[in-house]
Amino acid sequence: MLAYLIRRFGQSLLVMAVMATIVFFGLYMVGNPVDLLINPEDDLAAQEAAIRRLGLDQPIYIQFLQFLKGIATGNLGVSFVHNTPALELILSRLPATLELAFFAMLLAILLGIPLGMIAGLYPSSPGSRVIMGGSIIGFSTPNFWQGLMLIMLFAVFWRVLPSGGRGQTTDLFGIPVSFLTLDGLKHLILPALNLAIFKIALVIRLSRAGTSEVSLQDYVKYARARGLSEKRIVGVHILKNILIPVVTVLGLELGNVIAFAVVTETVFAWPGIGKLLIDSIGLLDRPVVVAYMMLTVFMFVMINFFVDMAYSMLDPRIRIKAGKS
Amino acid sequence: MSAIPVESPFRRFVEDFVRSPTAVIAAIGVLGIACVAIFAAQIAPQNPYDLAEINIMDGSLPPGSVGFDGFHYWLGTDEQGRDMLSAMIYGLRISLSVSLIAVGSAVAIGMSLGMLAAWSGGRVEAFIMRAVDIQLSFPALLVALLLLAILGKGIDKVIIALVLVQWAYFARTVRGAALVEIRKDYVMAARCLALQPMRILFGHVLPNCLPPVIVIATVQVANAIAIEASLSFLGVGVPITEPSLGLLISNGFGYLLSGRYWISFYPGVVLLVTLVCINVVGDHVRDILNPRMQK
After folding, report:
1. Is A170 helix (H, G, I), strand (E, B) or coil?
2. Phi, psi at A252, each rounded to 5°
């Protein structure tokens, strides 16, 4: 187990190193960093001073080493626009994104599992057909257009919910959150729903497939034969067994939620890291873009690492197979 | 000697396909959409990018209005007086061609790498498949977005980004299928005949790996359209001179809050119908080609 853990950890570090190299050479080879990093309106002396200050007069390998050193020490440059360290800026926006992602996941579980189980238990009823049809549409609808339609219906035509922003926030352990006030909650509903619809469709499919498979198992038949109530069979015996794949896939989808948060945050002007990224790309604020890239790579490498660890703990075959190859 | 009537695999496929009315409707939808895109210049009532044809006086008209010079705008106009219906037909053409070129290139690259991995094994295979694993562990939209943040806007760059996020699906699928095929007797026979490895791979093994590739390619075309639209909406996709459906929706975003919904509503409907039709066809083709689903 320890050998597998060390090897897998080494792999994660390797991926980080490869990604850092790609980001570095992508930014420094494709575009001239001087154009990207220095204010073109400065005079020549100021530009040269800035080049020296940023270390751009050094040979490329020294710059690369300094970039790596910056990553290791958490120094990813200073935002041109906000004039604060890029990493700090991103971390200050992170709670908003996490709040959105958390509520989206919650909606996906609370709506997706019951709907999927209904569709799995009564596959030929009209209600199930509506649910499955809805899930196909939920899968196919482009996320950003879906957000616009939610704004159009709830904010423009019916005027019941705000169209964007985060609303009133309260501090919870020093972190501003929206969901504790009515105004904040109103602002949270539409973006969270928009982010959740794709996940709801996914959870419906998974739990429907799981339910129709599990309902035919011997232990369900046995539970029926024992005369257990239908409520108990569905709520305990079936639900518990479909939860495993649903939880696995939702865990893996956590990264996707962060990716799609970029779209949802842009549509609803939600001040999280995704909106920050799009704004920074628009304003050519490269340090923030680089910091976002490295942070996301780090996050994904970590998620994958922990998922693999959890798998190998649950299923010894994986580490034995990996040990052989 | 009379020939025994043999049912060709293609004919059997068609017979299986027409059994589902939903799939047939979706397939007709896909064909219709493709025709509209191909004959955009002939079908569209107006050339929305010919400045002589558009009239700024007709800006932001709601659907069904009659313009300044008697032109009927069935789906309204945008802020510059462009007929939305025509703009959408041209936008559909750009969306479809970008994603078809991207998926075509991704199939070619992914298939070659997948075959190479299956044929050579060892280090080459480990390296390619590790790259596939890493590629697939990042969400496609995010990778494409970050890549375009570095590369900048442009149709060619969008295609590069789409190929980069999609090759891995094909490499993985083809490797899996090719590993099974390479162990079969006909490949051994071809090897014994001392055929060139290239000829065995591309002439004998490849055609037998195609069914799963076709299924994934169908779904990936829908994915490519959706990713391209999202990228264009976020402002890193196609340039403003060649608006795809995603960019049209993005243009309408600013007018949505003032109630001029049609500028982003109708392009989105077209996008949604296109994606649903392709996904339904893809799902059904998968069900037919999947041997486990056949009775």
Report:
1. strand
2. -70, -30
Looking at residue B146, its pLDDT comes to: 85
**A74 in a structural domain:** no
pLDDT digits over A126-184, tens only? 999 999 888 888 888 888 999 999 999 998 888 888 888 887 777 777 777 777 788 88
Say yes or no for a CB contact (<8 Å) between A149 and B134: no
The whole-angstrom separation of Cα B98 and Cα B158 is 8
Single pTM value for the model = 0.86
CB atoms A262 and B141 under 8 Å: yes
Residues of B in contact with A18 (CB under 8 A): 134
CATH architecture of the domain with range B19-53+77-293: Orthogonal Bundle (1.10)
Contact A156 B256 (CB under 8 A): yes
In total, how many domains does chain A have? Answer: 1
State which residues form the domain around A244: 86-324
- Interchain CB contacts (distance < 8 Å): A and B: 107
* A192 has a pLDDT exceeding 90: yes
ipTM, interface predicted TM-score of the complex: 0.83
Half-sphere exposure of B191 (CA within 13 A, CB side): 10
* Min Cα separation B247/chain A (Å): 11
Token pair, residue A237, equals: 């015996």
Please choose, from the candidates B96, B26, B85, B32, the residue with its C-alpha nearest in 3D space to the C-alpha of residue B61: B85
Question: Residue A13 domain-assigned?
Answer: no
A269 found inside a domain? yes
User: What CATH number should be reported for the domain holding residue A311?
Assistant: 1.10.3720.10
Q: Looking at residue A246, what is its pLDDT?
A: 86
Summarize the confidence of residues B137-146 as an average pLDDT. Answer: 86
